[in-house]
Structure formats: C-alpha cells, structure tokens
Amino acid sequence: MTQDSAQPDDHDEDQPGAERPWLSDEERAALRKPLPERAVVTSLAFTGLVAAFMMTLVTPLVPSLPTILGVHASDSMWVVTATLLSAAVATPIAGRLGDLYGKRRMVLVLLGIMMAGSVLAAFSSTIVPLIVARALQGMAMGVIPLGISILRDVLHAKRLGPAVALVSATLGIGGAVGLPISAVISQYLDWHVLFWVAGALGLIGFVLVARFVPVSTLRSEGGFDWIGAIGLAAGLVPILLAVSKGNEWGWTSVGTLSCLIGGVVVLLLWGWFEVRSASPLVDLRIAARRTVLFTNLASITVGFAFFGSTVVLPGILEAPVGTGVGLGQNMLIASLCLMPSGLIMWAMSPVAARLTAAKGARLSLLIGIAIIAVGYAIAIGLMTEVWHTVLTATAVGFGVGFAYAAMPTLIMGAVPPSETAASNGLNSVMRTLGSTIASAVIGAILASQVVTDGTVTTPSADAFRLSFAICAAAAVVGLVCTILLPRHLAKDTRSSLHEG
C-alpha cells in the first residue's frame, strides 16, 4: 500500500473499509501532504539502531557488574536476562497492538517506555531497580518489526525492498557499532553515562518518528487478545529462562525442567485457545503456512549463528596470550574488531534488496545462510591472529545482512497487510529464541573445556573450534529450512509486495 492509497476520503467514512474516526482533522491534513520517504526510512532505521544498541548496552559492563552492584555474579546476570525476556514477550504483543491501534503510535509508546527505563537505570545503584530498568529498555526491540510494517504501509513498492533491508539490518548494525561506544563509556566514564546516552538517543528517535512518520491508517478489525498476551508471556518466559539459566541451574535440575515443561504446556494450551479466538494475538493458521513456518525456523538458526560470533570472537580476542589460545586484546579493541560485522550489514542491505527484487527473497536467504556456514567453517582453522577474527566477523555479518533483509520480505509476501506487524514480531521472537539457545549451548561448551595460565582460566582452543563448528551446523540447518521454502516465492514474494 502506498501513502496515496492510504490517505482518507472525507466523504466515505460510513462505507465498508472506509477511514475510521480515530484520525483527527490535523492527522487527516498531515496525510494529504507529500510523504518525505527518505525521512521516514531514516527515522525508522534510527529507532532500530537505538533498539539494537539497547540489547548490547551493558555487555562491556558484565564482568564488573558484581562489584558495581555488590551482588553475586549469577544475580548480576539478571540485568542481561531481563532485557532478553522483556524483548521476547513485548515484541509480538506490540506488533498486534500496532496492527489494531496504529503502528506509529506503538513505536512512540515503546520509545517512551525505553526512555523511562534509561532514566531509571541512570539513577540506579542497586540491582533490583536496574533489572526493572533493563526490562523496560528491552521492550524497545518491538520498534524494528513495527518499523518494517510501517514501510509496507506507506512506501511505493519500488522503494520498499531497500528500506526493509536497511531497517531489518539495524538489529545487527546497532549491536556491532554500539559495542565500541559502550566499551569507551564503560572504560573511561561513569557507567551511568551509558543510560543517559541511551535516553538521549531514544528522545531523538521519538522526535524523528513523531515528526516524519505518518499516522497509521491500515488497521486490523477486532479487539486485543489479553488472554492470549498473558498466555504467550506465561509460556515464553519460563522456556527462555530455562534455556538462558540452564548452565547455571543444571539442565536436569528441578527448576530448569519445571520451567521447560511448564512453558511448553502453557504454550500448547495457548495455541489451542488462539486457533479458537475470533481476534487472536497471533494467527497461528497464518504462522503455520509453509512460507512463514520455514522462514521462522530459519530465523532461529540465523539468530543462533549471529549471536555465536558475539560470544566466541571476543573470548578469543580478550583471552591472555599466555594461555596459548587468546590474543591478549582489551575490551575496546575486541569491540572494534566486531564493528566490521555491523558495517558490512549496512553496506550489503541495498545489495540484498536488489537481489531480492530480481531473484526473490528465497535466494537471498539461501545465499546469506550459506555465507554464514562457510565463514564459520573457515574460522575453525583460522583463529590465531586478530585479522582472523575480523575476517570471521565480516563473513558472518555479510551473511546475516542478506538473511535479515530477506526474512521480513518473505513474511510480508505470505501474510495479509493487516497481520504484518504481528507476524514480523513473531519472526523477531524466533531470532531472539535462536540467540538465547546459542547463549546456553556455547556457554556450556566454553565452560566445560578450559585451560589455565597461572590464575587465569579461559576456554580451550578445542572449545572455540567446537563452538564454531556448532554455529556452522546451525547455519546448515537454516539452509535446509530455506530449501524447503516454496520455489515459486521467487515470483510470488515480489508480486504480493507490489500488490500490498
């Protein structure tokens, strides 16, 4: 749908499908003005960068958090876990609310919540308020799928592909580019400055969206499924909690098994309820379509592989040289070595968009995941020099850039416009699930195979190689899922986006 087709007609409010009375006269007037497409894309891409930055904001602080907060190391990790859980739960809920009540409105709400969390964190000095603040910040992840959905609503089809590719890639770009910034602030300034910077970035994003992004006119019928939202949260949280804490609690412990089994049971009951709901939070019939299903499964593997590089590569770079494994670099240098990953995602997003427009999103996803697999396969034998890690990060970033550009296009080509935000939100949750699984699996591997140099203990070379091999294997599984996508998508995806 283009902006012209989205504009209201003052004389057809009573007709079926006509403009609803939720638009004020001022909003109607604004919709008649020419759409500043470049400003819209820039605003939504910036909010995506800010949201991704939120996820890696405290990464450089993790080793120091127990001392800073005066708590045990296991307790301090809740500062990271809370962000992950809130992002996974809030993203599909925000997507559905956006479909119902306006995507732009929900972007502004999420940015406002993120700013509130940033201010709370900036004034925090103990763990409980900081955990609450990080949970509020994590909700900002919902702006990325919402932004992609807004682009589908307002941009011409010819300009949609590059814009979607760019906004989708911000998930990786923001983290890779934001890490060095976080490292510098953490190393040379008070750690509270991190959150003041985050709040300022959120405010800039809020102003940009309010100024340049048009009000949403394409909305779904029905009401919000509160029972479905509560059920989804009740099912996702214990599963993600068990996966992220399994190494610490023990995979056969009562707590871990209770969370896993309980979460699965709740999700099964939730699914049974959703397929019978007149206005479901997530339309599982659409989610079960072959294209959507296998795209989401491939998203899990891409999320796994991408997160693997952010865990393994810094470990190699920062481990002491005396262990015979590490490269002895500091936190800032390690962050800079990962930066090319984000930059290549940004550079490749228009290339991926052109390939998708010419040959279809299925081929783009195949190429992206194949590059990830090859990058990790090469990394198994190249991990003894700093440039080896830069090469691996760049290869992974190249592949992830193609994959992230293709996945929302595949989703949008298979779902009706009124379900775009909710479906993209579910796809984002799949990426998060992949990252969570990677954190648990790779964390267990790195903790189980170690070498010691004096008082310093680090993962062994075999542990790093095995981690690379598992990431490569995850990418191969993603390749299989992509191959199972219908071949006619090469044509249908493009045509459906033009029609939308």
From TrEMBL:
Residues 40-490 form the Major facilitator superfamily (MFS) profile domain. GO terms for cellular component: plasma membrane. It is a multi-pass membrane protein. This is MFS transporter. It is found in: Cell membrane. The chain crosses the membrane at residues 39-57, 77-95, 107-125, 131-151, 163-185, 191-212, 224-243, 249-273, 293-317, 329-351, 363-384, 390-411, 432-451, 463-485. Gene3D superfamilies: MFS general substrate transporter like domains. Its main location: membrane. One of its GO terms (molecular function) is transmembrane transporter activity. It comes from Plantibacter flavus. Keywords: Membrane, Transmembrane, Transmembrane helix. It holds the Pfam family MFS_1. It comes from the Bacteria.
